[in-house]
Amino acid sequence: MSKLLNKLKYKRDSVTLEELIFLLSTNKFDKKIFEIADEVREKYVGNEVHIRAIIEFSNFCKMDCLYCGLRRQNKNIKRYRMNPEEILKRVRLIAEKNIKTVVLQSGEDPYYNTEIIENLIIEIKKMNLAVTLSIGERNFEEYKIWKNAGADRYLMRHETADPNLYKKLHPSDTFENRKSHLLKLKELGYEIGGGCMVGLPGQGPYELAKDLIFLREIDSDMIGIGPFIPNPETPLRKEKGGNLNTTLKMIALSRILIPTANIPATTAMGSIHPFGRQIALKCGANVIMPNLTPNPYRPNYTLYPNKICLFERDTACINCVKGMITNLGREIGKSFGFRIKNLQTNEV
Ligand code: SAH
Ligand code: SF4
User: How far is CA 81 from the centre of its chain?
Assistant: First the structure.
């Protein structure tokens, strides 16, 4: 076994699918995996934790992902759209608070056409912020226009790298198609954010190991991993959902396999455990995403139940995450927090 742990430390590129399946099938080596991930994180991306302020600007969605509360078929949700002025007002506030990245997230909502998004990007870039889009699958021409307008990053989790499971969860989409979007975004010069949920029905060590191999294969610049949390308003309401330990292990292993990636301690981690995000920051994560969606909209962006921060006041989440970072003895990131890629060595 020490041989495999050594391999994690010194030969990450040669870690195989079978070895990952093994590590995901037992809890015996978890403590060691978490320690290695924390060491790798410190060595490759340092002690800074980058803050990305997220604005969830629309909860309309034309998709029907089986797990998600924003899915089109959910009639039990109050839908909202923020107009561009409202969004920009919020971005201004974020810039004033000295945060360097804004994440614009929504359901797949064609109401925001190519031009609306383009203009938002142009205006935000004038405020000297990095712009991350997280608005689902759009056409390749739009990705290009938005890149030219100044967009920097795109979050598009691959959700699961098992094509059969992907198909079950997304009746109108395929894993191959999802992959093609990620590769296109990368080719256009975006930093890309793949990632998955953990604890989906039908997902075991084999499927999770494939997620890790996929993230390494596409060299994902950012990696969003969180537990699947069953939503009572979806067909998956009766499923079990993901647990803290397995999700942490997925975060830790992705840090080990892709050492310079930016990896958030996700909101879903904080939603299944009171210290979920703090623990994730100690097991490989180096990013945190405070919720800056304004009221009255914020409580309506219900991807899953018991989401944290829904009733925090306005910008309170910024101070909360700053306190979290300093309490952990880490530093608050001051730069834009682009991926550091210059370290090439394959050793911890
Ligand atoms: N529409 C965009 C962005 C919003 S969804 C998109 O799909 O990319 C953002 C993420 O929320 C998804 O990638 C998914 O991984 C996560 N999510 C959705 N429903 C969830 C649930 N029930 N539990 C945990 N995460 C969920
Ligand atoms: Fe829409 Fe994204 Fe939810 Fe799928 S995961 S239903 S695309 S908001």
Answer: 22
Quick one: pLDDT at residue 342?
53
pLDDT tens per residue across span 46-96: 999 999 999 999 999 999 999 999 999 999 999 999 999 999 999 999 999
Q: Which residues span the domain enclosing 327?
A: 16-76+157-332
Q: What is the pLDDT of residue 37?
A: 98
Q: What is the CATH number of the domain that holds 269?
A: 3.20.20.70
Mutate to test the pocket of ligand 1, among 60, 68, 135 (most ligand atoms within 8 A of CB): 68
- Which residues, 6 or more positions from 84, have their beta carbon under 8 angstroms from its beta carbon? 116, 119, 120, 123
On whether the CB atoms of residues 166 and 173 are closer than 8 A, the answer is yes
60 inside domain? yes
| Residue 271 C-beta-side C-alpha neighbours within 13 Å | 21
DSSP run (H or E) holding 185? helix 175-187
Ligand 1, atom 19: closest residue by C-alpha: 68
**Could you tell me the sign of the dihedral formed by the alpha carbons of 279, 249, 302, 274, in that order?**
negative
Please tell me the total count of domains within the chain.
Answer: 1
Q: Quick one: which atom of ligand 2 is closest to the CA of 72?
A: 6
pLDDT digits (tens, 9 = 90+) for 31-50: 999 999 999 999 999 999 99
**By the 8 A CB rule, do 280 and 330 touch?**
no
Distance in Å, CA 193 to ligand 2 centroid: 15
pLDDT surpassing 60 at residue 346: no
First-to-last alpha carbon distance for the chain, in angstroms, is: 18
Most ligand 2 atoms within 8 A of CB, residue of 57, 63, 75, 233 to mutate: 63
Q: Where are the alpha helices (H) located in 241-304, listed in sequence order? A: 244-257, 267-272, 276-281
271 φ/ψ angles, rounded to the nearest 5 degrees: -85, -20
Query: Is 129 a domain residue?
Result: no
pTM over 0.90: yes
Q: Under a CB-based contact definition with an 8 Å cutoff, are residues 232 and 305 in contact?
A: yes
